[in-house]
Amino acid sequence: MLSLLLPAMLAVQAMALMEVYVPEMPVVALHGGDVTLNCSFSVATPFNLSDLTVFWQLTDTKRSVHGYREGHDQLVDQAESFANRTSLFPAQLGLGNTSLLLSRVVVADEGSYTCFVRVQDYGSAALLLQVAASYSKPVVTLEPESNLRPGDAVALTCVAYGGYPQADVIWQDGGGRNLTDNITTSLVANEKGLFSMTSVLTVVLEPNSTYSCRLINPLLGEEGYASVTITGQNIAFPPVALWVTIGLAVCLLVLLIALAAVCRRKIKESCEEARREAEEAKMLEEEESKTAMTLLKS
Ligand SMILES: *[C@@H]1O[C@H](CO)[C@@H](O)[C@H](O)[C@H]1NC(C)=O
Ligand SMILES: *[C@@H]1O[C@H](CO)[C@@H](O)[C@H](O)[C@H]1NC(C)=O
Ligand SMILES: *[C@@H]1O[C@H](CO)[C@@H](O)[C@H](O)[C@H]1NC(C)=O
Ligand SMILES: *[C@@H]1O[C@H](CO)[C@@H](O)[C@H](O)[C@H]1NC(C)=O
Ligand SMILES: *[C@@H]1O[C@H](CO)[C@@H](O)[C@H](O)[C@H]1NC(C)=O
Ligand SMILES: *[C@@H]1O[C@H](CO)[C@@H](O)[C@H](O)[C@H]1NC(C)=O
Ligand SMILES: *[C@@H]1O[C@H](CO)[C@@H](O)[C@H](O)[C@H]1NC(C)=O
Q1: Is it true that domain 139-234 has CATH number 3.20.20.70?
Q2: In the beta sheet, which residues pair with residue 132?
Q3: How far is the CA of 232 from the centre of ligand 6 (A)?
Q4: Whole-structure pTM value
């Protein structure tokens, strides 16, 4: 058994003599931008380009990203998602530079890429590509917005969108202390894979308080900031609501007095009218009875 395995292992080692170099740290690309995935090998002796074979592959799925053989790009088996977005640097190939230029980077490009190179010998190495996108400036809103009273629970919502990857959210009060209670953060991806982040902080209201939301994109080191200050204006009950209440009460009173005056006049008028009518009716009655009497006489 060993006698069978040993020559095979030696053969593999003999094939994998060539060193291939890629970045050890993940390569960060901006969404929508272009990125160069470095890959190189050391050439001991000059070689004929038609003897060079290069394959870029997705490490996990083995799908083809870009191929080069016998002096030409080989793209027949290229994964569709990379169509028209990849190229090598032809002038650099003879110098041992087999880097890949990837254009119009999307979130789905994130992952591990393997660079295979063969001249006489053979070697490969894998690198990690990470995609990043800047978030919009965060916006903080207050719910409910008005008629707040000290002691009410309010929800402060911090929203930012169009970013990648997930950002870190830090809520702080006016004194710069972290608020860690009652925070719920949610993440929604759009069709491009970019995130909208919503973080909701529930606080018990105190007058004169400031709440700020700080959003940090860990890959870009970018930071967005927004804050809301709750002043006497938001807290309505003492002055504003009281004046509104008094104002309404005064209006109501004036209205009632006016109504009463109108009613009294109306009542008086209708009383007089009734009396007049009654008198008229009496006179008419007397006349009629007189007529009747004359009729009886004749
Ligand atoms: C790619 O290689 C060049 C030249 O060696 C270097 O200047 C550059 O920083 C490398 N880029 C990355 C992302 O490693
Ligand atoms: C390979 O060549 C490209 C284009 O000149 C350059 O941007 C890149 O840094 C080179 N990479 C290495 C590892 O030399
Ligand atoms: C490279 O190889 C091709 C085909 O094998 C041959 O036609 C060409 O002459 C070679 N070029 C050099 C510079 O050796
Ligand atoms: C790539 O480019 C060719 C020629 O410009 C075009 O016919 C083809 O539709 C493109 N493919 C994609 C996936 O964009
Ligand atoms: C508070 O925020 C600072 C950054 O502003 C951070 O370094 C620290 O770890 C945070 N503390 C807690 C308890 O979250
Ligand atoms: C979290 O919010 C709930 C109401 O939404 C409140 O009852 C609770 O006291 C809050 N907890 C802390 C630690 O602030
Ligand atoms: C707190 O609010 C009152 C008015 O409601 C204001 O006069 C005072 O200056 C505020 N204090 C601080 C520290 O902002």
Answers
A1: no
A2: 30
A3: 23
A4: 0.72
